[in-house]
């Protein structure tokens, strides 16, 4: 995993294996080749993967979120066309929501879709599109109405990755084997049947999808792995004929307990929030 991250090498073998096990369709119903599991199972799987490799967890978590949008808001034709292959990573979806000036506040996005003939014409850019290079399509959010209509002025489209121009990459510490580039669209025609959900309701519909729990689950997984590595290292490394975990500054029991208690609390809060969300 360290080598993959340091060399920016794509974890294709691992992602293929997760696809073969239909874990890319973890939360999809069995009729779409999924495993029919819930959000708690999603959080636990992503936590475990993140403890080993954040890049794998990000690519999988985002893909599952995109599949959930199609399953919930797509037409029968869209579900049949995309979901069975998404369940095995045969078709890979990524998320195009954020932009340079639309981070926390997605309503500030500038990408726009104009109705033209039998479809739409999209212009704009998306930033941090995780797993873009291995994806087949980007779930792309664009304004289809005036700002005064916010938040009912944003729609979602399934846009093939080849329609985007690549602008630049970033090296991300600890998540470097799956890239999150900035990409742009210029006068790209998208057929009407690639609009997903209700026109103007893409933003609000996305708010009803709770697979975003994969993001805090990644944080919990990484924190747990860091704590385990720290305990393991400080308990084996010796200086002045004793393990460094026995020195006051490192050992200070309250500190370890504090970190592990905080971690347990995060885990617990996440699971209780999930149980609340699924009831
Ligand atoms: C490695 C990586 C991968 C990503 N992958 C994707 C992807 O695949 N698809 C995608 O669409 N996006 C992706 N993103 C974007 C991600 O969703 C955004 O980074 C995130 O939404 C936050 O936006 P920002 O980074 O611009 O932070 P900002 O919006 O600049 O916010 C910075 C900080 O300001 C504070 N802040 C902001 N608003 C408030 C508020 N209202 N109240 C209190 N505090 C606030 C918070 O502390 C916040 O953490 C990715 C980002 C990264 C770093």
Mind explaining what this structure looks like?
- This protein is an alpha+beta fold and 279 residues long.
- It has one domain (2-212): Butyryl-CoA Dehydrogenase, subunit A, domain 2, CATH 2.40.110.10.
- The protein is 42% helix and 18% strand.
- The protein has 9 helices and 10 strands.
- A 4-stranded mixed β-sheet has the order 1-4-5-8. A 4-stranded antiparallel β-sheet has the order 2-3-7-6, with no helix packed on it.
- A hairpin with a 2-residue loop joins strand 2 and strand 3.
- Helix 7 packs antiparallel against helix 9.
- It is elongated and about 80 Å long.
- It starts with a helix and ends with a helix.
- It binds flavin-adenine dinucleotide.
Brief overview:
The chain has 9 helices and 10 strands.
Strand content: 15-25%
Give the C-level CATH assignment: Mainly Beta
- In CATH, the topology is named Butyryl-CoA Dehydrogenase, subunit A, domain 2
Tell me the CATH superfamily: Butyryl-CoA Dehydrogenase, subunit A, domain 2
Shape: elongated
Strand order of the largest sheet: 1-4-5-8
How would you characterize the largest beta sheet?
4 strands, mixed
Helix content: 40-55%
CATH architecture descriptor text: Beta Barrel
Radius of gyration from the alpha-carbon trace, in angstroms: 21 Å
Number of helical elements: 9
Q: Overall mean pLDDT score?
A: 93
The unique ligands bound to this protein are:
flavin-adenine dinucleotide
Secondary structure category = alpha+beta
Give the domain tally.
1
Helix and strand run: HHHHHEEEEEEEEHHEEHH
